[in-house]
Amino acid sequence: MNKYLFSDNPALKQRDLSNLDADKAAVNAMVQAAVNVELFTIPLYMTSLYSVYGMHQINGAGNNFYQGRLWPGLTTTRKTDTSLTTNQDVFNKVFSVFIAEMLHLQLASNICTAVGHAPTFTSPMLQNPDHSWNCYGDDKTIIPHVIDLKDVKKDSEFYGLKVKLDSMNSTQVRLFLAIEETEYNAEKNVDPAIWKSKYSPTVPYAGWKSTSTEADLPLFGTIGHMYMCLWEYLSLEYTDGKNLWDKMYDPNSIQQDIFNSGPSTAPQYPKMSVQIDPTSEKHPLLQVMDMINGITDQGEGSGVVGEIQKRLHIQMLKAVQGQYQPDEANVATDYPSYSDVGVELPTSADATARGGVNGGMDHFEIFQAVQQLIEKSDFQTWDQWHQKNKGWNASDLIKNQADYEANLKNYPQLPTADQIATAMNNLTPSADALVWQKNYELFSQIATGSISGMTTVLNDYWNVPGTKFPMPAMSGTGDRMSICWALFGKAPDLSIAPPAKKSNTLYHACQGMTLDPNTPVQDWGCASPAIYHTCIGSNECRTEGGCGFVQSTAGGGSCGGPSCGSKTLRGPVAAGNVLCGSKATTYGAPADNKCRAFGGCAVPISASQMYPDPKGQMEFFKFEQNADGTWSSIPLPDKYTYQKGQLVHDVAWDAYTAVLNNEKKPVPPKPAPNDIRLAFPPST
């Protein structure tokens, strides 16, 4: 018997083995519910985060491409000699919560696989089959698996709240507080009779069946109580003397980590279990307890370990909040900040946001602080900015005029601030409500598609060995949300689904480069929103690679798992075909990549996207349709040398031209950048 699960609770002891299948189903439902709850918060918090008004620079190591320029959207702000503005402070604080929720999602997912359940990040509790989200809206009142806000007392501060996407306003922050509140506070806000009958369920659940799923779970009242019930189910002791944990634990499960083994070897949470290691001196169950306590300690500020210790005889020290704080120095190592000429700065913006005062507060405390900050007169969101401003001017996009003019001399191929401002105004014409609405719906699809690009890859990440985490998708999705707020002063509508992809269709990644006459072409001549994405990992097929993060044609890139073959548009690499049949050190070209996860990232390609120092030569491909309708990629004989500072769309056009010339087809005139490509910021 597992010594960590002794219990005096008769309901958890001498359980008849006839209940085993139903009990396993309950654990599977709860670990999936934990994934659902953590995932639910991410688009919700992200949408309000990027509603905070501000501008940012595009910079990176050794890169002075965009000196003197600004793009819409606030980012984290590092420590400086001056204090943070109110907007910067709010953004930093909520950003710290957003990243912590990504950590919680990792922890919940690792617990999932540890008990043999494959987590899904497209659960029907949150999303429809077309990847639109069904859990947010003006008529939604349920925090998934937690509480129905219609049950809140009329005298509660949470009365009348809706679970919707909105700007960072007082009502929205109250919703965030309702999500992160403790069980003590939650119970006070609900009529006692309703709380007793509907919330805070006891284990084992009455009437639970082996066919039940997370959709059949009771409401838990708080996130903490959900994890408490999970622990109690794992504690069930059967008549054969074994616990449910012993019967479900898989020591060979896929355990993933992007925090303690991320971009560098510096662990961001050095004192915390972030994955379950069967070789560790710490028992796997104590690692699970550490994860559960970390989630609840960072969230509501009251870890459940103390309550577990009251109910179970566990010999261990109480958790100390400090062990669940990120190591600021190590975060800075993973995510340094750079000046607009590519020089690394002495402090890191992400480390400032996640460490220090913010790192020492739980989410409930952070949102309490945010509630006070947004009441200041100098706080502003994009919807408020739009009420005061009637369009964009070139000066809005320039940080320093002298640097900007020098930038134009160094890189005359870049669009001017005037061109970008004009494009942004064209997308939101005040005199044409129909065009405005059409474009708003398009940018909502772009945001929804960006998130689905991340969630669909995550479905593979915890289920298919070798799949890479779609790291650029997080920042790329933020860019997509930022530009929607900046253009329309309105949250993207994530209930608007991106168009479904048509099978056996050779899509084109950007403006004017279709190779298949049957490919859908938008009225602006650009790529279909069906393939818009921000990360190589969510680039699903050939010719769908975009921006300038080149990938070797031999595979092994840093984002997403490659998949080749004429019949596989998504999914794992076939055995023995990891390199897709190529060992060359050439790189994939944008809009001409041979298969999934090659060629580049974001689609459409920003008109300002340029290549950094080249890694090597590119290989171009032509595409032939097979008898069964699928496509094959065939390399062209000549290699291509791209240059630093070359526009990515120009390289894509050169590849497109090479394919047409090889097939002795006429080359159409090269189009000027359209408004969408001009408005989209380049990836960093």
Pick out its properties.
Ferritin; three-stranded mixed β-sheet; mainly alpha; 684 residues; 4% strand; 20 helices; globular; two-stranded antiparallel sheet; 7 strands
Overview of the structural elements:
- By secondary structure, this protein is mainly alpha-helical.
- It has three domains: 371 residues, Ferritin, core subunit, four-helix bundle (Ferritin); 36 residues, no CATH class; 167 residues, no CATH class.
- The strands form three sheets. The chain has a three-stranded mixed β-sheet with strand order 5-6-7, with helices on one face. It has a two-stranded antiparallel ribbon with strand order 1-2. The protein has a two-stranded antiparallel ribbon with strand order 3-4.
- Helix 2 runs antiparallel to helix 8, helix 2 packs antiparallel against helix 13 and helix 3 packs antiparallel against helix 13.
- The N and C termini lie far apart (53 Å).
